[in-house]
Amino acid sequence: MSEQKPPSWRVAVSLFTTIPAGVSGILDDDVAARAILWLPAIGLLLGGAGAGVMLAVASLSSTSPGRLLGAALGVAVIAVLTGGLHLDGLADTADGLGSRRPAAEALDIMRRSDIGPMGVGALVLVLLIQVTAVAAIPRLPLAAAALVLAEVTGRVSVVVATSSPAARPGGFGALVADRTTAAERALTAGALACSVAAAGLTAGGSALALRGLAAMFAGLLAGWLLQRTARRRLGGMTGDVFGAILQVSATAVLVIAALAG
Prior knowledge:
This protein is mostly helical. The protein is built from twelve helices and no strands. Helix 1 (about 10-15) crosses helix 2 (about 30-35), helix 5 (about 85-100) packs across helix 12 (about 240-260) and helix 8 (about 140-160) packs antiparallel against helix 12.
């Protein structure tokens, strides 16, 4: 009698967060491909947690330093709930691409357990920009919404990036790279765009909807540019590259949201 596979949403929670989901065993291609489509929902969950922390801190201190602290704690909560998984991918990808070595050597650098100067720099700058951008958004409800949008858009960018092949056999990248259909990717991105437009129109009219869509498209563009760079330099995707795409995409969303006010 074959073992029943767990629901894909539980697999996604187990893979992409530190939240206990009661999932164990070997991850096969089919399960991984289905779990990756739950990434945007995971982003909604994590972004909501970070936004909730921001709002709680703001209720205790609405000053500018209080807003900055709330933004830092909101970003920190998301990092804790993901176990720093995507931040680690960002650092490794920065080291690999920043080395300017041939693909095989760059991939070897990314596999190492240590973090080089490019990785440290990328981590510090991305976290600094994220926290500052969230704190710079004048209205607190919009700052909270921007954090949620950034986390969801970053994960939609990962789903879009699964259109590329894997850079090497083995690892999580090989399980999900090139395993989603064009329809699934288009539906995921389209659902995000429709949700952003509807939320913006409901909360503040067409101007807010356009700002939200601009931030979303900036995030998707940033993720796509990194995907294209990785495919050209490394030959495809790895788990680390997926994590980097998520972080770069989310950061771009927050920057545009902050600039748009």
